[in-house]
Amino acid sequence: MSRSGRLVALVVTFTLLLATPAFAAPLSFPSRPIDGFARSGPPAVTAATWILYDETNDSVLASFLPDQERPMASITKIMTALLAIERRDLDELVIVSSKAANTGEREIGLFAGEELPLRALVKAAMIHSANDAATAIAEHVGGSVEGFVVTMNARAQELGMTETSFSNPHGLDAPDHYSSARDMLDLGVEAMKHEEFRNIVRSQLLVFSDAPDGSERRGTTTNLMLGEYDGASGIKTGFTTSALLTFVSTAIRDGRRLYVVVLGSEGRRAHFADAQALFDYGFGQLGIYGTLSTDNPYVSLKHRVSPGPIYAETSLETFVHLAGQGLMTSPPSPTAPLPDVEPLPVSVVERHPEEAPDGVLSALAYLWGFAVGQ
Questions:
Q1: What is the maximum alpha-carbon separation in the chain?
Q2: Any catalytic annotation for residue 179?
């Protein structure tokens, strides 16, 4: 093609492009997704009501109907053991009554008239969930089961357990015997403050003294998460036909302690599955992260017309914690201070950009120069 032909073709093409609506309209780009951290809600569980609590940061991470009143079953024994530890010397000897020996349901096999240390009875109640041991504790600490129940309810009021009413020391279904997930959480946290209690509820095997008739008595924990779930360290399970499966549980990972309370779990080992799912959610998705980025060099992606220097230095510190998820009303305790780092070098760049052609006439002049070979 001749030089004049090329010039004509370029002018025609340029004119058509200017007349095209798509070319004449300003360029548009798809909007950038909002930056942030992916979040998912709590897992689906079978429990009728539950609560997940981070003791390290004193925060309820998630919950479902936490104040709903429900039968509590054998997690009742947390209060029974707590009162025994708070009010009596665990080395005291207890004489087992016929009422205690005949309590029924799950037992360690107490005999009326035998004498045992209070500590052994607390272990039997908490590890093996022995109802006969719980009744023996109540009679010894409270003078009678009825007197002990009064003490249980008074202690519940002191702890702010407003949705709780105790009728017995063991948790068998009874009128006016109920609690809530939040109340049982408060009770569990209080009980775990005692070293004696913590040592008992993390035990998996109970070696009890032989019975007066010579028969061997052994107990195993009802908390099957002990030894199976990383960090599990207590505290108590329960089951009745009205309460279904109940569980107050705690676990520690990397110095962080979480609690889970589930009431009304339904299905084989459902309370363990529910607790594990909630622990995984708390430890895995609702963690606290320290500094994400610091002292990153700044890089400009835009050409600057000004010949002034570019100072390529910046420092960015970001702290992301549960408040970023809308789960905390106040920030957690500050993290340990980072060590001082040497400042990054400053890069000074001198730029002298050429001025670009401006306007249609300048563009046509450029095309003319191209066509004639200038």
A1: 122
A2: no
pLDDT average, residue stretch 221-235: 96
DSSP string for residues in 173-234:
--TT-BB-HHHHHHHHHHHTTSHHHHHHHT--EEEPPPPTTS---EEE-S-TTTTTSTTEEE
All structural domains of the chain: 49-285 (3.40.710.10), 288-360 (no CATH)
For this structure, is 77 an active site residue?
Answer: yes
pLDDT tens digit string along 332-373?
444 455 556 566 555 554 555 555 555 666 666 666 665 655
Asked if 129 is an active-site residue, the reply is yes
Q: What is the pLDDT of residue 104?
A: 86
pLDDT-derived band at 186 (thresholds 50, 70, 90) equals very high
Q: What angle is formed at CA 297 by the lines to CA 291 and CA 303, rounded to 5 degrees?
A: 135
Predicted model pTM: 0.70
Catalytic residue among 63, 77, 123, 179: 77
Q: Which of 74, 179, 203, 249 is catalytic?
A: 74
What pLDDT is attached to residue 324? Answer: 40
How far is the C-alpha of 50 from the C-alpha of 265, rounded, in Å?
A: 9
Weakest-pLDDT range from 36-45, 156-165, 327-336: 327-336
Computed on alpha carbons and rounded to an integer, the radius of gyration of the chain in Å comes to 35
Residue 297: strand, helix, or coil: coil
- Tell me which of 59, 63, 97, 129 is the catalytic residue: 129
Q: Are 200 and 123 in contact (CB under 8 A)?
A: yes
Separation CA 108–CA 128 (nearest Å): 7
Q: Which two tokens stand for residue 237?
A: 């399970």
48 phi/psi in degrees, rounded to 5: -70, -30
**pLDDT grade for 286, boundaries at 50, 70 and 90:** confident
Decide if pLDDT at 320 tops 50: no
Cβ contacts of 260 within 8 Å, gap of 6 or more: 50, 51, 52, 53, 247, 248, 249, 250, 251, 274, 275, 278, 279, 282
On the CB side of 354, CA atoms within 13 Å amount to 2
What pLDDT shows up at residue 325? Answer: 46
Distance CA(197)–CA(368), nearest Å, equals: 93
Counting every residue, how long is the chain?
374
